[in-house]
Each structure stands twice: as structure tokens, then as C-alpha cells.
Amino acid sequence: MDFFAQQARVRGSSRRLVVLFALAVVAIVVAIDAVVWVAMGQRPVDGGPAPSNLSLLATTTVVVLMGIGLSSLFRIMSLTGGGKKVAESLGAVAVPPDTRDPVLRQLRNVIEEVAIAAGVPVPDIYLMAEEPGINAFAAGYSASDAAICVTRGCLEQLSRDELQGVIAHEFSHVLNGDMRLNIRLMGLLFGIMVLAIVGQRVIWFGGGRSSRRDGGGNQVWMIGLALIVVGYIGYFFARLIQAAVARSRESLADASAVQFTRQTDGIAGALKKIAVLSEGSTLQAANKQEVAHMLFGEAGRFNALFATHPPLLDRIRALQPGFREDELARLASAMEAATAPPLATPPPAPATAAPGAGMPPLPVVMGAALAAGQPGFQRAGAVRRSLPRVLVDAAQQPESALAVVLALAMSAQDQIRRLQQRQLADAFGDDVLATVTALTHEAASLASESRLPLAALAFPALKQLSEGRQKTLLDTLGAMVRADGQVDLNEYCLTRLLRMQLQEAQRPRQAPLDGSGKLTARRDSVALVCAVVARHGNADETAARRAWLLAMQSCFPNQPMAWQAPPAAWQAPFDSALDQLDELSPPAKELLIQGLVHAIRADDVITTAEAELLRVICASLHCPLPL
Q1: How many CB atoms lie within 10 A of CB 226?
Q2: Measured by CB atoms within 10 angstroms of the end CB, which terminus of the chain is less buried, N or C?
Q3: Over 70: is that where the pLDDT of 83 sits?
Q4: Using CA atoms, how far apart are residues 26 and 6, in angstroms rounded to an integer?
Q5: H helix or E strand, kind and range, residue 432
Q6: Taking a C-beta distance cutoff of 8 angstroms, is the pair 497, 616 a contact?
Q7: Residues 272, 330: contact at Cβ < 8 Å?
Q8: What is the DSSP-derived secondary structure letter of residue 151?
């Protein structure tokens, strides 16, 4: 199982969803047309024969189609703000970036580590503070627009590993393209359900008035009742569609979480606690059914027909084949003992202890391959902890985050730095210049591999800047990196990522969709991207040529080709090539990433330059970093 295969499945789910929704709409239109024909189409006019039904049925069809379409469009447009709009619609509140609450701080740390490991910007973080059940969801149109929302139950009941497993599950939805499908599904459900609401209004306002005026209230009442009945029947089938689309994706997201974390006990432990707690994963929010298909667990206790997730025990067994149900009874007893009043006063727990940290370890059945793997989170966590506190604190507020990013672009050469300082003062004024100057020393001391993770941490704050302020930032950053007449690799990677991600965050609904292009049609772009990676990852031409050939043979087996060295001014052609390659289909992107990995591993050494380029390429192609 891999992310690219899952992206392809999501595309298939999208097509099935469109077909099923179209069939449901056709059935609704036919049913309402039939009722209107019976109720009003046979009435004579002034004692003469009944008029033709064709115009009446045509009008009814157009009105119903427009009603469903416009209602769905209205609901989708109301979520134009992306992930944060979905979270706020459920009453969730944003988790402050500078929170000092140790539990919320742990949540932020886990999400930041997952984002760094996956090579995506840190999402907005939300908390459903009034929800005691264990649940979470990811929402948005793209990784640049994503929001991760968890319930209070996640923070109170889960250990750090379990919370990490839940967050990794949600990140798989971010990376696999599930979020855009989820928002569309919310709109389609609303469009069908609105018919029942219209029917209620027709009966309430139309039936009585028509009855008083011309005695036609029975017909109007019949149409209103039909709208209610058909609307709820349509909603019934829409719920079935919602459940069918969601179930297959949730099992794949569980597997993706294991692929992320390289262990099963975290996410399996979270599922076991859902199974034994009385609250389970239930939400109290009135509109919970609207988002049921995007949650970590079931929104409530419903008939299996409408279940949006596979049965809990099946999910646990898929993760731990040796699981037995009697383990749940032992876990429930252990949790009761942990919450029971103590007979004697125990020693005080450390203030920073994570919720659930005192729980006994859960039984784990893990394959040798997983047990031997090193989680990417360990490396991401090490990078996160290595960042200077002054830079991390500054990255948490919009204006100081702007200063952090600009400090990353400051030159070590005095003459160039003075020119950059004048550019800064002209664009932002002396106050920002002073802040950037104060942060420059810490930024200059950063290891190369820490620069882009720091920018990822600053991203949520940068998104809060006005669109004009963001444009000024990007323009000034571009001018600063060109101040010495050239753009080096570090400068290119920083500016490329920020420009792409901020522009996507400004217009979430315009984020690119999965393409359908083939590698053979983009051979020149593939050759250039592989050549740039090979050149920056190898010290001499011979080694670069060998790495390039390995990548190209992986992408285009058994096809003759000659080494094509990248131009000296490679940045603009590289930009253009990445934009073209983002139009590839998921399987084609997978082949390309595999080829790049072959090039990077050609000399058995992964350099910082190769790692940074791969991070930028994967972000540009909207796919995760290879683990």
C-alpha cells in the first residue's frame, strides 16, 4: 500500500460519487415530476381540456435541478475558507501557537513533527473542547489549506504514541486528496437534504394561503409533502453513498498511519480505547452527520448500514492480527484502576506528563520489518527540538514569522547584507528591519536541514497576514535572494516553497487537482529535474551522470538516452518543469519519485542538498516525502 495507489483510489471514489449522486438526482427529479403531474397536470382550464404536461414537467425538472445544484454550490462555497471553516462549523476553537498548556503543547508538537516528516506545511490546529469522545478529522482543499481538529477526549484519554497514530491517520487524508472529496460530499448531502426543508416551507406557507385564495391548497400541500418524502428518501440514499465512499478510505488511512509511524500500537491503542470507553468516538455536535465521513471514528452509534467506518474490531485486527477481544476487558480494568481514587497518596506526577502516560503498555503484535524500522518522526522530532527557542517563538506570530523568513534569506557577506537591509527597510520599514536584524545571527547558525522545517513551522502564522502583506513578503524575499546576482539552492528551495504554499492558501478551491499526464509526454521535464538533483548531489560530472542515468532508467526502462547537464541558470526551467510534472497522474508521479530516490542513493550518501530538493519536488507534485 502506498500514497500514490491511494490517490488513484480516491480519484476512482470521486468518479463513483459523481455517478451515484447523478443517479440519485435523476430519481428525485422523476419522483417529483410524477407527483406534480398527478397533483396539477390534469386540471382543466376554464372547462376546457387539460393543457399539455410537457411544459409543466420541464419547468419542474429545471426548478428541482437548479434547487439541488445551487444548494450544493452554496454549501461548498460557504466552505471556501477551507479546513478552518469546517472546524469552526463544528464549534472547534483554534489552538494558540504560543499555548503554555502542556497538553495542547504536546498536540502541537506531534502535529508539527508529522508535518516535518511528511514534508508539508504545518496545518491549522483546532480543538473541540466540549467533545469527550475520542475523534479527529482533517479538512481543507490542499495541504496548504489543511486544518487538523481533535476532540478533548483525544487529549484526555490518549498517550503520546496513540495521539501520534491518530494524527498520522488524519495526515494520510491530507496527503491522499481525501479532503477535497470530503468537502464536495458535504455539499452534495446538503443539496439533497434541502428538498425536505423546501417541502416543509411549501406546506407551512403555501398550502394555507392557496387554500384560502382558490381552494388549491390540496395540490400545494401534496407537492410539499412529496418534497419532504422525496427529500428524506434522497437523503437516505445519500447517506448510503457517504458511508460507502468513506469506509474503504478509512481502512487505507489506518494502513497509511502505520506506514508513517512504523508501528501499530499507537493507532491500535487509540481504537481500543474507543471500544472500551462509554463515550467512544461519539460527537455531540448537532451537525455531526455532515462530517461523519471525514472523522477518525464513527460520529455516533448508528445502524451498520450507515456506518462510515469499518467495525472497530475489524480495524484493530487489521493492524494487529493476533488481537483478542479479551484484551479490551483488561484494558478497561486498567483504565478504571488508573482513574480510581488512590488508597494512599502517590508521589506527584511530573507537570509535563502526557495524558495516559501512566497506562500499562498495550499488547502488540508487530512484524519484524516494522519492528526494525526507524520512525521518520524520530528524525523530525530531533530537527524540531534542535531549533533555537527564539526562532520557534518568533515563528508563532504573523509579523515575527515574517521576520523569521526574511532572516533566513540574509547574506553572510557584509556588502550584500547592507543591500538586503535597504530592501527590507523600503518594503517594511525600520521596525521590521530591526526585528530581522535581531534574528539574523540565530538564523545564520541553523543547520541547512533545519531551514525548511522552520519555514514550515512559520507557515500557519504567515497565512494570517493580509494578501497584500504576503505579496510584499514574497516580492521582497525574491529581491533579497537575487541581491548578489544569483540564487543558490537554499534560497531557491525557500522561495519556491513559500510562494507555492501561500498562493494555494490564499485561494484554497483553486488548488491543483490530480492530473492524468503520462511520463512519456513529460520526458524533457523529467530529464531536467533528475539532472538538477544529480548535479547537486554529486561532486563530479561522472558521478552526476551515473545518478541521472539510474533515475532515467527507472522512469523509462530500456530506452536509450544521453546525459543532459542542467543549465547554469537552472532555477526558472526547473520551476517550469515542476509545474508541468504536477499534471502527471499519481502512478506517473510514483515512478518519478522512485527514479529520484535511485539517483539520490547512487553514491550511498544522502546530502542535505538532495534532501532539500526532494522536499521541494514532492511539495510541488503534492505528494509526501518518501519515508
Answers
A1: 20
A2: N
A3: yes
A4: 30
A5: helix 430-444
A6: yes
A7: no
A8: E
The answer to whether residue 364 scores a pLDDT higher than 50 is no
CA dist 158 and 267 (Å) reads: 10
Exposure on the CB side of residue 611, measured as CA atoms within 13 A: 16
From 491, 493, 469, 489, select the one nearest 420 (Cα to Cα).
491
pLDDT one-digit tens code per residue, 57-77 = 788 788 888 877 787 777 777
Q: What is the three-class DSSP state of 362? A: coil
Residues 6 or more apart whose CB falls under 8 angstroms from that of 603 comprise 537, 538, 543, 547
Phi and psi at 150, nearest 5°, equal -125, 160
Task: Please report, for residues 65, 189, 267, 330, the alpha-carbon distance to residue 30 in angstroms, rounded to integers and kept in the order given.
Answer: 11, 19, 46, 55
Question: Could you tell me how far CA 280 lies from the centroid of its own chain?
Answer: 24
Query: What's CA 454's distance to the chain center, in Å?
Result: 20
**Hey, what's the cell of 285?**
455536535
Q: Answer yes or no: 399 catalytic.
A: no
Q: Would the pLDDT of 257 be above 90?
A: no
Q: Calculate the alpha carbon distances from 542 to 196, 398, 546, 550 in Å.
A: 70, 46, 6, 13
pLDDT per residue over 128-155, tens digit each? 999 999 999 988 888 888 899 999 999 9
Active-site entry in 162, 170, 250, 583:
170
Domain range list for the chain:
1-337+374-381, 387-509, 519-620
The cell for 299 is 460520529
Q: How many residues does the chain have?
A: 627
Q: For the whole model, what pTM was predicted? A: 0.77
Please give the single-letter amino acid code of residue 518. Answer: K
Contacts of 256 (CB under 8 A, 6+ apart): 1, 3, 6, 168, 169, 172, 175, 176
Name the helix (H) or strand (E) containing 124. strand 124-128
By DSSP bridging, strand 147-151 and strand 124-128 are parallel
Calculate mean pLDDT across residues 392-421. Answer: 93
The more confident residue out of 378 and 589 is 589
